[in-house]
Amino acid sequence: MSELDTGAMWAASSGLAGGTSTEVERSQQEVLQLSAITLSVNGRARRFEMDPRTSLLDALREHLRLSGTKKGCDHGQCGACTVLINGRRINSCLTLAVMHEDDEIVTIEGLGAPGALHPLQAAFVECDGFQCGYCTPGQICSAVGMLAEVKAGWPSHATADVASPHPALSEAEIRERMSGNICRCAAYPNIIAAIRDVAAGGPG
Ligand code: FES
Ligand code: FES
């Protein structure tokens, strides 16, 4: 549905049918009560106004133009929207931006850049860990969070000894811990190889 269609429907339902698009927009603004919000994204404070019901994913993509974070399902099922908040991975489609004013948000753009790639970004290139690349930013952000969880000794459903402070990062462990990130191109073997490379200390 186009923005015009949406606006016309809103105007009709609010008794403004027949108003100009400017009138409709002005009325929408009055009804929506936009919130001023400041987010810390990739080390930079970003201030803007938005509908307080905006998801973090939409705030990143539509307001801050950080389109590296992808929208797949918008329902918490694919992991394409994974970002890091205070170092922990989260599905940005399932949380509201206004909830994160005091948090440090890192997106794929903040992990590395051409010429200065994050080790996981370099490993995905080295191991051919993607095909279309749509899931890749989420996979990489998730892998960063996942390796931090392993380092902190967090067990997973696949951990044989949950009392061990250092769970071994077997292929089964990686598959389980990355199971929230779907790859429609099924690049899983290469994604796992990239993560294992970094966990073992290379490349990058
Ligand atoms: Fe967030 Fe799919 S877009 S989990
Ligand atoms: Fe295409 Fe994963 S590389 S969806």
What would you note in describing this structure?
This protein has about 200 residues and is α+β, with helices and mostly antiparallel strands. It folds into two domains: about 35-110, Beta-grasp domain (Ubiquitin-like (UB roll)); about 120-200, DNA polymerase, domain 1. Helices cover about 40% and strands about 10% of the residues. The protein has eight helices and five strands; from the N terminus they run ααββαβββααααα. The chain is elongated. It binds FE2/S2 (inorganic) cluster (2 copies). One FE2/S2 (inorganic) cluster (FES) binds near residues 74, 77, 78 and 81.
Please, what is the average pLDDT? 89
- H/E element sequence: HHEEHEEEHHHHH
Distance between the termini: 44 Å
* Biggest β-sheet strands, sense, barrel: 5 strands, mixed
Sheet with the most strands: spatial strand order: 2-1-5-3-4
Shape: elongated
Rounded to the nearest angstrom, the radius of gyration is 20 Å
DSSP summary, beta strand count = 5
CATH homology superfamily name of the largest domain? [2Fe-2S]-binding domain
Query: Can you tell me the number of structural domains?
Result: 2
CATH-defined topology of the largest domain: DNA polymerase, domain 1
The low-pLDDT segments are 1-16
How much of the sequence lies in strands comes to 5-15%
Helix and strand composition category: alpha+beta
DSSP helix fraction: 25-40%
User: What's the CATH C level of the largest domain?
Assistant: Mainly Alpha
Helix count equals 8
The CATH architecture of the largest domain would be Orthogonal Bundle
Bound molecules: FE2/S2 (inorganic) cluster
